[in-house]
Amino acid sequence: MSDKLLTLEEVCQILDKSPTTIKRYARENLLSSYQNGDELTFPEGEVMRYLDFSKRLG
Q1: Which residue range or ranges hold the Helix-turn-helix domain (predicted)?
Q2: If phi over 0 gives left and psi between -120 and 50 gives alpha, with beta otherwise, what is residue 11?
């Protein structure tokens, strides 16, 4: 997978969730994230793994 970092907005679109939900996932360690000042970013590979996992759960 890629080492690319995705913005909060990109992750919201990919997972079809609100920014509040994605921030909660990050806070609860459901998604790995990095805080750089006010910006929250997410490793693309981690987001894609979460997407695959959530699809399998239905």
Answers
A1: 5-51
A2: alpha
List of long-range contacts for 16-21, beta carbons under 8 Å, 24+ apart: none
Residue range 1-32, pLDDT digits in tens: 568 999 999 999 999 999 999 999 999 999 99
* Tokens (6 digits) for 23: 């921030």
Closest among 1, 26, 56 to 11, alpha carbons compared: 26
Residues 30 and 46: beta-carbon distance below 8 Å? no
Count of beta carbons in the 10 Å neighbourhood of residue 42: 24
Contact 5, 34 (CB under 8 A): yes
